[in-house]
Write the C-alpha cells for this entry.
Amino acid sequence: MLILIFIGTSLTAFITSCLADNDPNPYCSGDIEKIQELTEDFLQKYGEGVEIRWDKDTGYLEKILYFNLSGFGDFKDRAFSFLSENSSFLGIDVNDLEFLSVSGLEKVTFKQLYKGLPVHEGKIWFSLAKEGGTEYSITLKKYYFCLDIDVIPTITKEEAAAIVMGNLGVTELFNAEEKSVSGWGNSAYIPYGAVMYGPSPGVYPGIVDKIMKFMGKDVVIQAGGGIHGHPHGTREGAIAMRQAVDATLKGISLKEYAKSHEELFVALQKWGE
C-alpha cells in the first residue's frame, strides 16, 4: 500500500516561443532596427527616467519601471489603455489579454490567452514602482511571446491509445466504460506498478474516502488548496488530510472520525464531504 499526499499546485506548463520570419511582431521576426526605433519612441513619450529591462536570454521585454499612467478611467482602464497604445513596443496582442484582478491602486493583472484558450501562468501585471509613490511598473516576464502552437488536436484516440500502450508495454487498455468502479485498481489490462492514480485538482479532506474507494490504496492524493486553505493553517490542513486517510483505512466514516479529531472536523465544516 502506498498513499502519497502531494501538497502544492499544478506544474507550470512550459511553452516554447517560436520565431516566424514573416511575423509583423519585430520580436518574433528578429527585426532589431524596428525594436530600437520603437524603444526610442517609447522613451521619448514617457521620459528618460523610465527604466527598461530585457530578458538576457530571450531578448524579450521583462519589465518597465517608473512611468505614469495617464488618461481617463479607473486603474484597470488606464492600464489597458497603456497596453493598447504601446502594444507594438511591448510585442503583445491586446486581443489575447483578459482582465484578471485589481487591488486598489497598487496592482492590476491581465491573464494571457492564445487562440481563445488561457495560457497557464501567462500574465502581465502593473504595480507601483515604489511603495507610496505615483509611478508604475509593468512586468512581462510571465507573458509568453511569439507563440505558434496548433491547438487543434491532430491525433485520433486510437493513435493516442497506441502511444500509451507502447509506453506502458501492454497490448490492451482499460476501458472505464466497460469496467465497474471496484475493478479500477485491479484491472488486468494495466500491469500493477505501471501507473499510479493521482487525482487533482479540487481535492480536500472531505473526499479522501471517495478517492480511496474509487482508486484503491495505491494512490497519490494531490491537494493544494485543500491543505493550505484550512482555516487553522497549512500544518492543520496536512493533519486533516492524514486523519481522513486514517479514518478510511480503519473503515470509519469521516463524519464520525471528525468528532474526536479537531483538524478534520474544521476541514469538514469548511468544505463538507
Q: What stands out?
A: Residues 98 and 110 are 5 Å apart (CA to CA).
